[in-house]
Design goal:
Blueprint: H1 3-8, H2 15-25, E1 34-40, H3 46-59, E2 63-68, H4 80-92, H5 94-103, H6 112-117, H7 145-165, E3 168-173, H8 180-192, E4 198-205, H9 214-223, E5 228-232, H10 238-248, H11 255-265, H12 269-280, H13 288-299, H14 303-315, E6 318-320, H15 321-327, H16 332-344, E7 348-351, E8 355-358, H17 361-370, H18 373-388, H19 396-405, H20 409-425, H21 429-443, H22 446-451, H23 456-469, H24 473-486, H25 492-506, H26 513-527, H27 533-548, H28 552-569, H29 572-588, H30 592-606, H31 612-628, H32 632-648, H33 657-670, H34 674-681, H35 693-707, H36 712-719, H37 727-743, H38 747-765, H39 772-788, H40 794-820, H41 826-846, H42 853-870, H43 873-887, H44 895-912, H45 915-923, H46 947-957, H47 962-969, H48 973-987, H49 992-1001
Parallel strand pairs: 1-4, 1-5, 2-3, 3-4
Antiparallel strand pairs: 6-8, 7-8
Helix pairs in contact: 2-3, 4-5, 5-7, 8-9, 10-11, 10-12, 11-12, 13-17, 14-16, 14-17, 18-19, 19-20, 20-21, 20-23, 21-23, 23-24, 23-25, 24-25, 25-26, 25-27, 26-27, 27-28, 27-29, 28-29, 29-30, 29-31, 30-31, 31-32, 31-33, 32-33, 33-34, 33-35, 34-35, 35-36, 35-37, 37-38, 37-39, 38-39, 39-40, 39-41, ...
Length: 1006
Amino acid sequence: MTPEERAATPLLGRQRELSELEARVGLGERPRPAAVVLGGDAGVGKTRLLGELGRLASEQGWRVLVGHCLDLGDSALALLPFTEILGRVDDEARETVGQVVAHHPGLARLLPAVRVMTAQHPTAGPGRPMGSPSPSVQPPGHEDVAVRADLFEAVHAVLEVLGADRPLLLLVEDVHWADRSTRDLLSVLLARGFTSPVSVVVSYRADDLHRRHPLRRALAEWGRMPSVHRMHLSPLRDADVRALVHAVRPGLTDQQAVEEIVRRAEGNAFFAEELVVARELGDDTLPTDLADLLLVRLDRLPDDAQTVVRAAACVGRRVPHVMLADVVELSDGSLDEALRAAVEANILVPVPDAGYAFRHALLGEAVYDDLLPGERARVHAACARALREGRVAGTAAELARHARAGHDPVTAVSASVRAGQDALGVGGPAEAAVHLLGALELLDLPEVAAQAEVDRTAVVLQAAEALVTAGEAPKAVALLRQEVVAVDASAVTARADLLMALAHALLLLDEAGVSVLAATEEALDLLGDDRTIRRVRALAVHARALADRGRFEVATRAATAAHDLAGELGLEQLQSEAATTLGRLKSFVGEPEAAVEAMAEVIDRLRPTGDVTGLVRALHQMGGILLEQGRFGEARGYYREAADLTRQHGRPWAPFGFDARLLAAIAAYLVGDWPEVDRLTDVREESPPAALAPLLEALALHTLAGRGDPSAMQRLEALQLPTMRDGWAVVLATGPAIDILGDSGELTRAVAAYDGAAATVKELWHVSSFAAQVRFAALLLGHLVGRAVVAVGPERAELVGVGERLLEDARAVARRREELDRADGPEGAAWALRLQAEHLRLRWRAGTAPPALEELVDAWQAAYDAFDRLGHRFERARTAARLASVLLHAGPERAPRARALLDEAREEAERLGALPLMAEIGALGGRTAPPDDGPASRGRVEVGLTPREREVLTLVAAGRSNGEIGRQLFIATKTVSVHVSNILGKLGVGSRTEAAAVARDRGLLG
């Protein structure tokens, strides 16, 4: 990164440390003397943290002085950082310096002009700083004890005087490079302290302190001083590194690439930034400049120590001593000496279980990349032999890695398969997939396949299972399709197994349903009358495929056959799986209560068995049955349990468990628990697979849209809705997308979002229409109405034309339901009524064949009653506000009812923080905003908010607390409170929610 880019990157993940430093030195309170010694590894963020501390101090009127120690080796000037500091003081407070120099003439020898000029010029000339000594005075370096003491006294005095003038923050950075005189002067300053508000903060690199480093003694001395507080800056959390990566490159949407950077950076901000830039340049290897910087330490080691470190880089992140002893050709004594040198240089660190690790993984990468190919292969081969022959204990994964890198592919195959099985056994599906796919890659080589004693089909099936469980179903489908094509036609059972696995994976994707049925039908044909576990599995997945295509009667027969055969063979898990399918099918054929009863029986039977996969699926299906009945609270409980189970067993992205998490969030949204939605969709501490991340982001848009969050549009753009190829993700994202675009005045794009979603889902699901179209159409009609209020002439006719098209789409959905003999559930019925009401309101507002006012009132009352019965809190409030708007035009006798509805809607909007709805209510005569005179009135700024107040208001609108705002803007919470009070007064409102609504309506949010 360039220095400019690095300087522009925000400080992330250091709020706690920054707050502690602020408190130590008294920022925002009463300034007081303080002394802090801050340590941390190179690149961890010390300079940026101190820079932010200095900025905050400057904003509060402090004088901030910074001195740097430089790595100049034997050429370093004594007391160099204090020359830098006094140079700054001489520029800013020359009179003060002059007064101190008058009492301590030796101080002048530290001024930059004297140190640079005296060796070249016999006189200082007109530009000589005030108080400069005559040319005969020499710079410090070989002064006697008395002169040195006077000089230290002078530095202390000038700092004391400056602190009495105004609070002073003295920052001395990189003291691991400090000369002895600088260390001694710092010891004096820290020991004596100050009576005026002078705070001294000293920083150093902890990883540069080898055992004999001269700073170690000084640190020990400083640590014993009561007035000195020592802090260590630990690596950033993974979530903070993710945020840093996105801050450096907001356009980086490849989540796997982000996670790889997070893994390799290990909490080091500098490393993360460099890895981001390297990836952007198309280079996933370690950046050359960074590698060179890391390898400098290796070059300083003795030869034997370098040999040991190079071997350690091949062994891995953790290096057992016994492995080094086996692969490095050194005597025990020489090995110990070499290791001691590497440890003292902070390249290796001892770890439990008699081993070592690289202090930072990137250092190990740099050493490994610097090896010649032959060097690597020899060490890896030696490690593989030691593991295979049992001289060193290790895992199958370690053996696989060393055997592959040591050119022993046959051993690598068998070890990779064992490693994959081990990973699956301990809940590591993603790791298992890596091992198993690696084995398959080697098995593609004919000479390896001929020697390896493994069943390729079994490995493929295990790899597919691992991929599906890890949330990578598309990759599983690609693998299985390839194997189905390649498998020998005579291998009947192998082909049948592959087809069943393919069908199972296809059911998780938006693939053509006929492909699933073709796979299950062929598998059943291949198995014939085989009455074994294979046929049970084939019938079970066939039943699910039929249900997915809406062929419920045939699906019931297949599931019943699977259930009966499983019972006959004593296969309890498969019998429960078939029972789950049968229970769900009851809801599909219009028997919801029977479905609930049947599913409850399955769940009760599964709970004590330990069959987590079966229980999760049954809980998920029960949630679906209840959700369709509008029993959101009950559904939410089952979904939560399923999601919690998968997370507890280390499979958060597995089918049904991950779906349950999404559906739990949907249920929470419906009942108005928006904080729960935010929690369930927050992946800052997680790493979702690329195929699943858009689903969570799409769901997160719901609360962003409802609140009118200023970041909603940016999040929507990042989701790239027009290019999405996951039908469920499109369905989840389109509703909030219509609201975000419509509320922003982007009506053309809102219509395009509807049209694009309809076309995409129809194509992916191979249907002529789908239920969610009704909801999308109703939402879009609401925004068309808003535009019709101010539109004129042809534009009104065009809006009505779009409305008619949306109404016809809804009729097509209803016709398809009739064809399938399926009735609308409570939610579908509510949205159908809302769509009818919105369509009438559009005609009314546009003046095109307007309905009778009583017809309009009845339609909106029916929609309101439906959402009230449904329990959809936000949409009930939004429907109440629109019913109220109609009632206000129906005569004065309807006004009390309209006001009651507005009060109800306002209360709910305030509880949810729903700013667009608050603005809509205000435009109807509520107390939150003036009447809406159309788009021309919006964007007018009629209040005198300061730039800082605008920043605070934007964060208030985003739902941040005063404490959160203070941390984000680096100001005290009390200061935020004052800003909020001023904002409320200027806007003439009584609450934060009202302020946000008014600000949003008037275009005050930045």
